[in-house]
Specification:
The complex is a heterodimer. Chain A is built from 8 helices and no strands. Chain A is mainly alpha-helical. Chain B is an alpha/beta fold. Among the domains of chain B are: 109 residues; 46 residues; 38 residues. Chain B is built from 9 helices and 7 strands; from the N terminus they run H-E-E-E-E-E-E-E-H-H-H-H-H-H-H-H. A 7-stranded mixed beta barrel of chain B has the order 1-4-3-2-6-5-7. In chain B, strand 3 and strand 4 form a beta hairpin. The longest helix of chain B is centred in the C-terminal third of the chain and has 37 residues. Chain B is elongated and about 195 Å long. The interface between A and B is medium-sized, with 21 and 20 residues.
Chain lengths: 259, 327
Amino acid sequence: MENDSKVVTSFKNFLIEIGELSYFTARFFKELFNPPFEFKEFWRQCYNMGNRSLLLVSVTGFIIGLVFTLQSRPTLEEFGAVSWMPSMVSISIIREIGPIITALICAGRIGSGIGAELGSMRVTEQIDAMEVSGTNPYKYLVVTRILATTVMLPILVFFGDAIAIFGSAMVENIKGNVSFLLYFNNVFDSLQFSDVIPTTFKTFFFGFAIGLVGCYKGYNCKKGTAGVGLAANSAVVYTSMLLFIIDFIAVFVTNIFYS
Amino acid sequence: MEKTASQKIRLGLFVIIGLSLFVLTIYFIGSKQQMFGKTEPLTAVFDNVSGLQLGNNVRYSGINVGTVRGIEIVNDSTINVEMEIDRTVFPHIKKNAVATIGSDGLVGSVIINIIPGKGEALPVQPGDIIKSNNRIRTDDMLSTLNVTNENAAQLTADLLKITNDINKGKGTIGVLLRDSAMAKDLKATIHNLKITSEKTSKTMDNLNRQIAGLDHKDNVIGVLKDTVVGNKIRHIVTNLDSSSQEITKVVANLNTTISNAKDGKGAINYLSNNPKLVKQIDSTMTNINQASQKLNENLEALKSNFLFRGYFKKQEKAKKKAAAGKS
C-alpha cells in the first residue's frame, strides 16, 4: 500500500514537473516577443556558450571522426568497400553522430553550467533581488540563455561535423592514400539535402532543450546549496534523456517526410 | 569595455564561420545535383525504372551531367523519366543516344546512363525524347541463375554417378584406374613409347643431317640447285619436249604408212600377206642367182674372145693410168 502511494506520488510529481516545465516553456515564448529585449546579455551568453564550447566540440569531433574511420576500416576492407568510407562517415556524422554528440557535450557543459549558475542565484536570492529591483529576471536570465543555446548549438554542430569529417579524411589520406579532394568530392556526392536540412532543424530543438531544462532546473532550485548541485546534475540527466527523445521524434518525422 | 568588443568580434567570427560551413555544404550538395547551373529538360521512356528516384544522377559517358526531375507513369508499359541536363552538355548528346538504367557500383543507388549512339546524328534539343534500353533486372538474372543452378545440379548428379562407377571399376576409366594388369600393360606401353620416341628422335636427327647434306654441291641435289646446271637441264628438257613432239609426228607418219601398207593394195601388202608370191619370189631369186653365175661364165668367155679382147685391154690401161695419176 505504501509502495502504491510512492508510485502514485512519483507519478504525480512527474506530472507536476511536466506541467511546470510546460508553463516555463510557455512563459519563455511569451517573454521572448515582449520588449524590452536583452541583446547585450544575449550576445554575452552566445559567446559563453558558443565560443567557449568550440574547443571542446572541435577536439571531440576530430577524435570521433578519427576513431570512427579507424574502427570502420577493417570491416569495410573485408567487404572490399573502403571506397564507401567517405559516404558512410559523412552521412553518419551529419545525420546522427555529430548532432547528438555535440548536444550531449553541450548538455554536460552548458546545461549543467546554467543549472548551477541559476540555482546558486536562486539560493542566494539574487533572482528575488532582481524581481524586487524591477528587473524581469526571467527575461534577463532565462530567455537570453535559452535563445543563446538554441542559436549556438546548430553552429557548434556545423563546426563539429566539419572537423569530424576532416579527421576522417585525414585517416583516409594517411592509411588509404585518398586525397582530400577525392574524399570531399565523395562526401558531397553522397550527401543529400535530406541529410542536412532535417538534422539542422533537429539541432535547434536540441539547443532549445538544453537551455530550457538547464534554466528550469536552476530557476526552480530549492533546498539551499545542496539544491544547486542537484539542479546541475538533474539538468544534465534530464537534458540527455530529452535529447534522445527529441532525436527519436526527429528521425521518425524525417522518415515520414522523406520516404 | 574592450573585453566586450573582443568578445563580440570572436562571436561574430564564430557565427560567420559556422554559417559559412552550413552554406558551403548546401552549395556543394546543390551543385552536385545541378541545382545552380543552367539546365534543360530531356526525356527518356522506359517500361521499368528499377527503383529510380527523383534526384538520382544522370551520367553521359560516365560524367554526371544532370539529375532525374520527374517520373511519370503514362500507361502499364510506359514510364516517362524527365531529366534535367546541364545545358552545356546538350551539343554533345546526339539524337541517337540511348538511356539505360544502371547502378552506381554493385550496391550503389540507381542512376541513368546516357550512352552515345553509333554513327552521325544531330544534337538533341531541350525537351527531346531519347531512346532507352531496359536494364537486365536482378530478378531476370536470378531466374537465369535458377536454370543454371538446375543444370549444375543435374551435372553434379551425373558426375557423382560417373565417379561412383569409376570407383567401382566400371567402364574404361574405372578399369584403367582399378585393373592392375591394365596398369602394367599401360606402363609397358609407355615404356615402349618412350623407346620409340627416342629412336624416332635419333632418326629425325639423321634425317635432318641428310637433308642438310643435300645442300652440298657434290650431291645430285646440290648440283641440281646450281643455276648453270639448272639452265642446262631446262634447255635439255625443252629440247626433249620438241624432240618428243617430232617423234610423235614421226610415229604418226609411220602409223599412217604402216596402215597404208597393211590396208592398201601395194607391193608391200602383197608381199606380207601372200605366201605364194613369197615362194615364187624365192624361186625367182634362185633362178636369177643361177642365171647371173652363168652370165659371169659367159662374160669370162667373152673376154677371151678375139672380138672383145681389145676392148677389155683398153679398159685395163685406162684404170692403170687413173691409178698412177692419183699416186
